[in-house]
């Protein structure tokens, strides 16, 4: 699934790298920092940043919680090592639990909710921004177009940063770009490419707990965003009415977040934000 038949994945890669170079030059900065989760999105953004800025100017921060798996931490470490980039590991379990204790009245009912999940994302965002302030490194955001379209991100948390690198690529396109990055040698660990996508914000979480499979979701989003079709028109093409309606409604309900995101690298004629927020 590429942007269109006339755009190669090599062109997408080169465009992102070139625009990263221009953005950092214009910002008067040469250093970048990003959160590494062991997931596919950060695993794609880090090699792109290294290609644009040099691995010596890119720093990753692993911020595992009690819900993070050992293999995710190892995948993130292996990625940084494969690239020759520096990284730190800052566990957030104690910080997270301090937040919960301070706001214990809010969670007295004992029910798990998205509020607890969002605290983790915001703790990580604060750590990245602190590193940015201390070491004059711009934070690269790792959100993709599928997640942004669905509101699958936390304001002031994982949606923070100076620039959104892959925000004009759907999740399936991110995987395609990952395979291109690995075309000559394994930079992105194979397990990152094969494991089920997860934000790891509660035990056993998978993206498909709250979203359709990306093989189902992305074509629907493509028709909504790129083809400007209505939900009714998409259903008329043979897509499941319940899924299409749910996707369309989620997209509408989360649209307020889009007005608050950082600038994005524009790759299509229909980025998720207004043109003034694109480079």
Supply database-style keywords:
single chain; 279 residues; Rossmann fold; 49% helix; globular
Could you characterize what this model shows?
By secondary structure, the chain is of the alpha/beta class. The chain is built from twelve helices and five strands. The chain has a five-stranded parallel sheet with strand order 3-2-1-4-5, sandwiched between helices. Helix 1 (9-27) crosses helix 2, helix 2 packs parallel to helix 3 (70-83) and helix 4 (93-102) packs across helix 5. The longest helix is centred in the middle third of the chain and has 22 residues, at 114-135.
Helices and strands, with pairings:
Elements: H1 9-27, E1 32-36, H2 40-53, E2 58-62, H3 70-83, E3 86-89, H4 93-102, H5 114-135, E4 138-141, H6 145-150, E5 163-164, H7 171-181, H8 190-194, H9 214-225, H10 231-236, H11 241-253, H12 255-258
Parallel strand pairs: 1-2, 1-4, 2-3, 4-5
Helix pairs in contact: 1-2, 1-7, 2-3, 2-7, 4-5
